[in-house]
Amino acid sequence: MNQLIGKRAFITGAGGALGRASSLWFAREGAAIAVVDISAEAAAETVRLVEDTGGTATAIVADVREEVEVARAVAEAVDELGGLDTLFNNAGVMPHQDRSFLDADLELWNLISGINLHGTVLCSKHVVPHIEAAGGGAVVNMSSFLAVVGCTYPQDAYSASKGAISALTRSMAVQLGSRGIRVNALAPGPILTEHVEKFFPDEDARAVRLARVPLRRFGQPDDAAGLAAFLASDAASWLTGQVITLDGGISTNYL
After folding, report:
1. Residues 101, 156 contacting (CB under 8 angstroms)
2. pTM for this one?
């Protein structure tokens, strides 16, 4: 425990299920958190929960698609925390209406890419100079197992955005390694949040998906949070350019 003592982390999408779990996990490990979310109410609730456990956090409202807002959010985080050495690009969307490329709605594709991919780019662009100024640190990106495998029930815009993030992670790692900055990504399988549960309209649909998971359970937000915290910690000091699939083994299972 306490692997993140002294770290100052900028976590996006920190008002959502995975972002909130990660903020709490990072805080328990000793990090001070810039809780960044498009929803002021959700960000404030995450800060309250962190502070209730004795952690340090500040709520910052920003739309990661908008560079002016990202630049302002980063400046605010640096001012509040005294600098930044950790970035978790967690903000993302996975709309239920995302389907096959054959039925592509370019407005939806642009929305998904704008948040998932371009948000990752913009936050990295503005946070990385502060990480370098702090003497180095870590960037953690959020990919998906759908960047690794195809799916009978396609979510093509989401999959494409996450595949791009995996590729970007490797490129970032090569560019930033000499600056003392590690860049890795986690690629979760189905994490059972309220949003994900809606992809399973009935027990049969849920059972079909679960049958493909060798560990016979869906992921929980803390599964992703724990891996993100490890990737951000000094325990992963010789790990960079990796996209780690966290899916209970589903991507290994030929059923």
Report:
1. yes
2. 0.96
CA 163 and chain centroid, separation: 14
Known catalytic residue at 153? no
The catalytic residue among 10, 26, 88, 158 is 158
Question: Contact 191/221 with Cβ under 8 angstroms?
Answer: yes
Query: What phi, psi does 142 have (nearest 5°)?
Result: -105, 105
**Phi and psi, residue 135, nearest 5°:** 100, 10
Q: What is the pLDDT of residue 209?
A: 83
Q: Residues 85-116: pLDDT tens digits?
A: 999 999 999 999 999 999 999 999 999 999 99
Map 105-146 to HEC letters.
Answer: CHHHHHHHHHHHHHHHHHHHHHHHHHHHHCCCEEEEEECCHH
* All domains in the chain, ordered by first residue: 8-249 (3.40.50.720)
